[in-house]
Amino acid sequence: MKNLVLGIDVGGTNVKLGIVDAKGKILARSAMPTKPYNRNKTLLIKAIFTQVRALFNNSKISLKQLTGIGIGLPGAVDPFKGLVIFLPNIPGWKNVPLRAIFEKEFRVPVLLENDVNMITLGEWKYGAGKGKNDLLCMTLGTGVGGGLILDGQLYRGASFVAGEIGHMPINENGPHCNCGGWGCFEQSVGNRQLLEKISRIFGSTTLTIPDVHSLALKGDQKALKFFKETATHIGNGLVGVVNLLNPPLIIIGGGVSNNHRFLFPTINQVIQKRAMKVQAKLVKIVHAKLGDDAGILGARVLLAEGLKKRS
Amino acid sequence: MKNLVLGIDVGGTNVKLGIVDAKGKILARSAMPTKPYNRNKTLLIKAIFTQVRALFNNSKISLKQLTGIGIGLPGAVDPFKGLVIFLPNIPGWKNVPLRAIFEKEFRVPVLLENDVNMITLGEWKYGAGKGKNDLLCMTLGTGVGGGLILDGQLYRGASFVAGEIGHMPINENGPHCNCGGWGCFEQSVGNRQLLEKISRIFGSTTLTIPDVHSLALKGDQKALKFFKETATHIGNGLVGVVNLLNPPLIIIGGGVSNNHRFLFPTINQVIQKRAMKVQAKLVKIVHAKLGDDAGILGARVLLAEGLKKRS
Predict the structure, then answer these.
(1) Chain B residues 252-271 with a CB less than 8 Å from chain A
(2) Residues of A in contact with B281 (CB under 8 A)
(3) A250-297: pLDDT as tens digits
(4) CATH homologous superfamily of domain B131-288?
(5) CATH for A4-119+293-305, options being 3.50.50.60, 3.30.420.40, 3.40.50.720, 3.40.50.2300
(6) Which residue of A has its CA nearest to B247?
(7) Distance between CA atoms of residues A132 and A73, nearest Å
(8) Predicted TM-score of the model (pTM)
(9) CA-to-CA distance for B242 and B245, rounded, in angstroms?
């Protein structure tokens, strides 16, 4: 019998599924939209059950080979109690005992985790973080998220919401943020804010970040300046984490990180100039390797690591 | 035979020593100035040896009861190799194998640690952090230092310099800092900067922080405003750590923290207003309990915890 893990990555737009073998290879995958089930969590759970069975059927893999399920969720999760505490972008999820619900259905161990933590676990063991005991994994998208591996294990924080690098302030004064604070890192480098900035710079509301990337490739000065300024904010946002946690590695993923060619040199420069010498000397900034697969592969890692007892 | 630990707290001004029993009681203590030996590390080490023997002799405690020594040092230390990497304020210390030197002299296990980490360990087990698995301990003095207990153990960082909260930037632009960066937290709340500010506000270069405290007690508006602004900077500096690490407890010690009556309410307000809801709801800000004893007691904790293997 094979030892297969099912990874389920629940997002506000799609639910992605993947069957992962013992070597971290994704044998089969599928996806379904989340929004049709937005009003009713029971319907969403049942739709996922159906999707799981269809995935195994279609790929001719027996469910008997399934040894565990890891579910990544876009919000606050209590992995120890197996509870989804709340999901800011999917209504109606509050204190849902999702682990028990899935364990009853599939009769295998199930673990829940925050989606960015799941990506972090995936990149750590199968991606850009291989072999490291400590790292920060940052995702640049609509939200700016972060996950921490510290002393060889996922650091969740005392109420399981650690890693919110997007909401570390980078200035004492600054624009209001959805989190309730102000001057947050995300307010300078979140997708929405970058698109607004692009619209101001280029006078076009249809220009996308990949469009600006193409312009930068052609040497467009405004585009190059846009990326340099964005990278400076990212570097400034990371200096504090570098000085506080002394990580050897920062992995940057998410859509915006695809512009790494125009971002990473400046991010590095800012950190080298501004962070403390010992910390700056150690830290490497690298691009995430696994793309959308990170969350699925993270499920395999989560199951393998288990929930280390909090001492 | 009793199980006694010797704590040695090496500072730029004084070396403090204390003999700690199994319950965390300091049975005897002494201190000696550091500066006479600033030019020669061998002389400083020999002077400490003499001081140790004198402490045991004078307090009529047999050195045979000594089961371990913990040494806190104001700089970068490799606890695993037993090396003092460098001490910014005591010249001539570079890659000194201090653990081996002390083990040869006293024939007991010796562990080295950064001084703020040592204070953090002391407060964690014997002071304001009792019973917590996670905390930040911040010291407000000439330097602003920090130590982290994460998931039930001291977090040292990959090159043992984690915790540098004083050098987390609080603004993207800001005054140059000794660390080579700019806009650091310490540049707003370090002792020197606070004294400069007092001199600007009150037009006196002799007024001390305790003097301003006395004025605040009498209701002096300038003094109250000074503490409110200082506390606002401290709160702003802590919001990022609160959002990133989701700690249940922040312990604040060091000279400036003695003004907690005029600082803590505003620090709390800023964190409650500006940090993310789940993080803000959890975190408590408390005053350090052990004062100067924290570093000595930390030695006992360090010996008890040992150097957990990095997985």
Answers:
(1) none
(2) 159
(3) 999 999 999 999 999 999 999 999 999 999 999 999 999 999 999 999
(4) ATPase, nucleotide binding domain (3.30.420.40)
(5) 3.30.420.40
(6) A158
(7) 25
(8) 0.96
(9) 6
